[in-house]
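Continuing the series of single-chain predictions for the mutant panel. This is the parent chain; the variants come on the following pages.
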Amino acid sequence: MQFQITGFDIFWRIYVNMFALSEESIINIIRGFKIQFYVFLIFTIFLMVLRAVRAKVGKTYSRKIVIYPLIYLLLTLYSSITLTLFEFEFSMIIYLLGFIIGFIIGDLSQIVRRKGNEIYQSSAGVAIAWSFLFLVKWYSYLYEPHFPTFVDPVITITFTFLAGIILGEAFGIMVKHFRTK
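Parent structure:
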């Protein structure tokens, strides 16, 4: 059996050595703050409902349309540090596939004029699914140490695909806006 060091292993060792604490004590400290996870969960659910309402009603178009999708991408990359190199490369291929699909979805979106503003509608289901998988991944990592390890790459690759759709949709809407102008 070959041992592979992931990016998270390196990060974790640096983090542990930085504070001169044992790995077990750091995990116990993290698990002791379950209330923070529940606050984070309530905050995330609030943001998901807000995003669903805004997607249904529509959002005013601006060039800042890619800021939130880039945040999704950064959180996805941060969550991918537990992957091996092969799994990371595979997830990047899946990300590009999601980006292409999202670009097509964004290109098919409607941009309408209301009260002098250009309003676009985006899909809320993808962002909600991404947020749900993000919560499952981090909850299982922090609070369920016996969670099956083969599920982690599947969850990470799935929400990498969803992050690609989110960013691709934003770029598709931008391209459609510039074409119709």
